[in-house]
Specification:
single chain, alpha/beta
Length: about 190
C-alpha cells in the first residue's frame, strides 16, 4: 500500500495541510496519508510548540471521518530530537507491506542534504515534493526517487495562525471547525 508520511509539528494543523493531503490521496496516487506529529524538528526552535498530545489531538479532530488519513504519534516514543531516517526505518520494519513515501515541501529541499543520513533516505525511499512559493527544488528534482507534484500552492501557515490568534484576530475559517473549537476552548496561542 502506497502510504504517504506527512511530517510536521502541526502547531496547529490547518486547512492548508488538509488540502494538500487531500490532493495527494485523490490525485497523487497515495492510498493513505499519515500525519506524523513530530515532537521537535531539529531545525526549529521550540518556542510556541504546544505539548505533543495536544497537537496530536488537533490532528485527530481535523481528520475525523476521513478514511484515507491517519494520525501517527510514532515519534513520541523515539529519542529527541527525532530524525526522519530513524522514523522511516522503524515504520518500514513494523509495516513491511507498506511502501512509504516521504512528503515534503520544496522549502525543505535546501536543508535536505543536512538531514541525518539523507543519502540513505534518497536511496531507499520515495520522496514527494510539493511546491512552496519562491522555493525551487533544484538538482534533487532529477533524482529517480523524487517526484515533484504540482499541487495548488496554499499560503496558510501555522505561524500566521498563531500570530493572528495572539493578536486577537478571527482565524476560525483557516482551520477545520473541530480544530478551531478546541484551540479556542483551550485558549491556545493567546498571550
Amino acid at each position: 500500500m502506497k502510504t504517504g508520511l506527512y511530517f510536521g509539528s502541526f502547531n496547529p494543523i490547518h486547512n492548508g495541510h488538509l488540502m494538500l493531503a487531500n490532493y495527494l490521496v485523490e490525485y497523487g496516487g497515495i492510498s493513505e496519508l499519515w500525519f506524523v506529529v513530530s515532537p521537535q524538528n531539529p531545525f526549529k526552535q521550540k518556542l510556541s510548540l504546544l505539548p505533543d498530545y495536544q497537537r496530536l489531538e488537533l490532528v485527530h479532530r481535523a481528520i475525523d471521518g476521513f478514511d484515507k488519513f491517519r494520525a501517527c504519534d510514532v515519534e513520541f516514543n523515539m529519542p529527541k530530537p527525532s530524525y526522519t531516517i530513524d522514523t522511516l526505518t522503524y515504520l518500514s520494519e513494523k509495516y513491511p507491506k507498506r511502501e512509504f513515501y516521504l512528503i515534503m515541501g520544496s522549502d525543505n529541499v535546501a536543508n535536505f542534504p543536512r538531514w541525518k543520513n539523507a543519502d540513505q533516505i534518497l536511496a531507499n525511499y520515495h520522496i514527494i515534493v510539493f511546491p512552496r512559493k519562491d522555493c525551487a527544488v533544484g538538482e534533487l528534482a532529477n533524482h529517480p526517487n523524487v517526484e515533484i507534484v504540482e499541487t495548488p500552492i496554499i499560503e496558510i501557515s501555522s505561524t500566521f495562525i498563531r500570530e493572528s490568534i495572539a493578536a486577537r484576530k478571527d482565524v476560525r475559517f483557516y482551520m477545520p471547525p473541530k480544530v478551531w473549537e478546541y484551540v479556542d476552548e483551550m485558549n491556545f496561542y493567546k498571550r
